[in-house]
Each structure stands twice: as C-alpha cells, then as structure tokens.
Automatic annotation (TrEMBL):
<keyword id="KW-0521">NADP</keyword>
<dbReference type="Pfam" id="PF13602">
    <property type="entry name" value="ADH_zinc_N_2"/>
</dbReference>
<keyword id="KW-0560">Oxidoreductase</keyword>
<protein>
    <submittedName>
        <fullName>Zinc-binding alcohol dehydrogenase family protein</fullName>
    </submittedName>
</protein>
<dbReference type="InterPro" id="IPR020843">
    <property type="entry name" value="ER"/>
</dbReference>
<dbReference type="InterPro" id="IPR036291">
    <property type="entry name" value="NAD(P)-bd_dom_sf"/>
</dbReference>
<dbReference type="InterPro" id="IPR013154">
    <property type="entry name" value="ADH-like_N"/>
</dbReference>
<dbReference type="InterPro" id="IPR011032">
    <property type="entry name" value="GroES-like_sf"/>
</dbReference>
<feature type="domain" description="Enoyl reductase (ER)">
    <location>
        <begin position="14"/>
        <end position="324"/>
    </location>
</feature>
<dbReference type="Pfam" id="PF08240">
    <property type="entry name" value="ADH_N"/>
</dbReference>
Length: 327
C-alpha cells in the first residue's frame, strides 16, 4: 500500500467541474474503522445534491461518495480479515467523513457489509446502495408482500429497476413509469408487467390497470408527483416516499386531508447500512451470478472521468446505474 492515493475532492459546492482528482494521503487505520481498497463505486443522486450544496448535511472540503466496494486492508478492531470482500455504505460517508470516490476509504465498521463473489468489480459496485434502497423501500417503506401489485414511479432509475427485479422475485405484479416512451422495452426487460408513460398525472391510467388501486407504491420522482401516486393507491395501500429525481423535496402548504386520500398510508424511507443485511447482499450477488437477477448498469467510467460521469447523472442521459472503477 502506498502513502498516497488518488481521490476526488470537492472544496465547495458547484457544478460537475467542482470535482477535482487529487493525490492525497491514505487515511490511517484506527480502532472501530475499516480501511478498504476501493475497486468500484456507484453514483447516487444524493451525491449530486451534496455537490450542489443542496440539503442540510455534510461539510467541505470532502471526498464524496456514500458507497464503495473493495477489499479490507486493515481493521484494527478485528472486525474483518485482510482481503475480505466488502461493501461500505452510508454512516456519514461522503458527507461527514470522506467517502468512496477514492482508491482507499476509511469507514465505520458498522457501515461495512461482507460478501464473497467472483463477479467483476464494476457489476458489484453498482449493487450496494441501489439494493439497500430498493430492498428497504419494499420491506421497511411499503411492507410489500408476495403477490401484491406494486407501482414503481421513476422505474428507469437504478433504484427503480432494482425495485422491479426484487418485486418480481416475490411474484408481485409491477407497474413502472417512465417519462420517455423509448425506455418502455427497458422496463419490460427488467420485469415490469405494465409500463405507464409519466405525464405527471398517471393515477387514472394506473386504475384502468388495477381498478381498486395498487397495494403499494415506491415514489422515486419527488413531492411534485407524490399526490398523484397517492391517488393511484388502494385503501390501506402504502406509498413509500424514497427518491427525489425531480429535485422537488417538499409540498408547499401541505394539508394532509387534501393530499392523502382516505385510508392510504404514506411512509418514507431513507436507509442505513443496517437495512442491507449481509445475506440479502450475498443472495442478490449469487442470483446475478446464476443469471436469475440482473444489475441495471448504464455505463462504467474510469476514476479520471468522474466529471463526465456526474454530467451524465445530472442530465439523465442514461437509464440505470452509473459506476466508476478505480483501476
């Protein structure tokens, strides 16, 4: 291991050009923390928000990145052996402490999830945060059950595609949305039973497919479409507010009895590393290796192309997960 590493640093909020690739010291191991040799990391919308200075979290300068995959270099607390394959996610990564946009990252042991896989690192790098958010949205947010009817609003996002894959593994009927008709086949390939083109108002069309409304819905677009998603949901059905692809976070003058239909449940899911149990991650990776699950990768970039990767994420040029490899 060298004394220095390549890392992406943000000194202050800005556009994609605010991401600067630099040579910085490798962080020293410490008890309770795990030093990981990063092989790949996925890009996430929250990292775009952080880069812009949106929200009320994090500090600068910072190495961003709320997830990474690689192998353990050191764990002074004895939590993991050298060379263990691990994913790291959340726990303040990329916000309150330096994150995964680097060749090495030092993270709390509580943010680490071990696995064993022969899949390539780019494929593995697409999985942790995407799977954690999709799994948590379905289990914690919606409490979806086998055989339910599920609406995935924002289906061509990486989390949306993962939700579809996980839902079909439980024999759910999936209705997925996209604003772009050209992505209909992409959603069907992921497993969606029905595709609705999102005009901003889809509740009536969803109810033409499921007259009583869907049992559950994962809202990934934002609060601008949330009221319409609630109207597409059955009495005693549940909507999980999970994502903000539209960057619309709040509902002005929110009046619950006007926004939430009678008997429809509204929850939220934001997630933590503890919401991705090691058996769930291992099971998903094994399913990918066996060909019974797919990872919706849109494009893989080298670390030096991080600015272009953020540009592509910002303009929505690609459907699926964007992944960066470090070597």
């Amino acid at each position: 291991m060298t004394a220095t590493m390549r890392a992406v640093v943000i000194d202050a909020p800005g556009g994609p050009e605010a991401l600067r690739l630099r040579e910085v010291p490798v962080p020293p191991p410490a008890p309770g923390l795990v030093l990981i040799r990063v092989e790949a990391f996925g890009l996430n919308r929250s990292e775009l928000h952080f880069r812009r200075g949106m929200g009320h979290f994090g500090s600068f300068p910072r190495v961003p990145g709320i997830e990474a995959v690689g192998t353990v270099v050191a764990a002074p607390g004895g939590e993991y052996a050298f060379g263990t394959q691990v994913a790291a996610l959340m726990g303040g990564m990329g916000r309150d402490l330096d994150g995964g946009y680097a060749e090495y990252t030092l993270v709390p042991a509580s943010s680490v999830v071990p696995f064993t896989s022969t899949l390539d690192w780019a494929t593995i790098g697409a999985v942790p945060e995407m799977l954690q958010t999709a799994h948590g949205s379905l289990t914690v947010g919606v409490d979806a059950q086998p055989g339910d009817t599920l609406l995935v609003r924002g289906g061509t996002s990486s989390v949306g595609l993962a939700c579809i894959v996980l839902a079909k593994q439980q024999d759910m009927t999936v209705i997925a949305t996209s604003r772009n008709p050209d992505r209909t086949e992409r959603l069907h390939r992921a497993g969606a039973d029905h595709v609705v083109i999102d005009t901003g108002s889809i509740a009536d069309e969803v109810r033409r497919i499921v007259p009583d409304g869907v049992d559950g819905a994962v809202e990934l677009v934002g609060t601008d479409t949330l009221p319409d998603t609630l109207r597409a949901t059955a009495v005693h059905g549940t909507v999980s507010f999970t994502g903000m692809l539209s960057d619309v976070w709040t509902i002005p003058d929110f009046y619950p009895m006007d926004v939430i239909p009678n008997g429809v449940r509204l929850t939220a899911y934001s997630g933590a590393a503890s919401d991705l149990p090691a058996p769930v991650l291992q099971g998903f990776l094994d399913a990918v290796a066996a060909g019974t699950a797919t990872v919706p990768i849109a494009k893989v970039y080298p670390l030096e192309d991080i600015v272009q990767a953020h540009r592509d994420m910002e303009n929505g040029a690609r459907s699926g997960k964007l992944v960066v490899t470090t070597r």
